[in-house]
Design brief:
Blueprint lengths: L17 H8 L11 E6 L5 E8 L5 H8 L10 H17 L5 E8 L2 E10 L4 E9 L6 H16 L4 E4 L4 H9 L21 E4 H17 L3 E3 L2 H6 L12
Parallel strand pairs: 5-6
Antiparallel strand pairs: 1-2, 1-8, 2-3, 3-4, 4-5, 6-7
Helix pairs in contact: 4-6
């Protein structure tokens, strides 16, 4: 809104460099690095799949953004809303408009089988945003969600991990099977759409979830990835179609 200037000025108009504006608008990026991790998952049919979980590389952002566009028309199991939100979050990561975000890929021999992302609210609270899988019969969803819990407590040193769920599958896989309690709603709301907060504390993580969840749900163990496994997944292979 224009107002009368109450004094004489040397200039009537000022220009501002976009680089100065970017200094005001760009988000922080203080999320600590996570080493690639791996899990050998045994599915219901007894087949074993070795999945590598690692951070996304900058050059992989654009191809995955293009792939995520396929989810926007997937009116099935909430893939459309989750895909739209993940697309926006990944684009915000590229444009530096989401504070302290992390974004993990789940790879099986280079094939993109799933993704998981979140961000650091502060030193005490780690926010889970989304987990999406793209290939059936791998059972990568539980491992990818677990990877965020691991990152929160083992890498970031958080006190709590806050999640919420759009889909029934997501809540069954993590909220129910981890027996996550919730904070009173609407008094306390998750930043993702004001939904309910389901939280995991460090005490619960250490006492049961860290060891028992993967053994019971994914029938696997979680460990630092070998150099050989990392090399096998160096080249990202993006599916040509959704398998949901």
């Amino acid at each position: 809104m224009k107002r009368k200037v109450p004094t004489k000025t040397r200039k009537e108009a000022y220009t501002i460099s976009t680089e100065w504006l970017e200094g005001l608008l760009q988000s922080d990026d203080n999320a600590p690095a996570m080493k690639p991790m791996s899990a050998v998952i045994t599915n219901k049919a007894g087949k074993k799949n070795t999945v590598l979980i690692r951070p996304i590389k900058p050059e992989e952002i654009d191809p995955i953004l293009q792939f995520l566009k396929l989810t926007l028309d997937a009116e099935y199991d909430y893939y459309d809303i989750v895909g739209a939100r993940v697309f926006a979050e990944l684009l915000a990561m590229k444009r530096r408009r989401l504070k302290d975000q992390y974004f993990f890929l789940g790879l099986n021999n280079g094939r993109l089988v799933g993704i998981a992302n979140g961000r650091l609210m502060d030193e005490e609270i780690n926010i889970s945003l989304h987990t999406l899988t793209f290939e059936r019969q791998v059972n990568a969803g539980g491992v990818l969600f677990y990877s965020k819990c691991w990152y929160a407590f083992e890498v970031c040193g958080a006190d709590e991990f806050w999640a919420t769920f759009e889909s029934y599958n997501g809540w069954m896989m993590a909220g129910l099977r981890m027996a996550l309690p919730s904070y009173p709603w609407p008094d306390m709301q998750h930043e993702l759409g004001g939904a309910k907060i389901f939280y995991l504390t460090r005490e619960l993580w250490e006492s049961s979830i860290k060891k028992e969840y993967l053994e019971q749900v994914a029938r696997t163990k979680y460990k630092t990835a070998t150099k050989d496994l990392i090399a096998k997944n160096e080249k990202l292979i993006i599916p040509k179609a959704l398998e949901i």
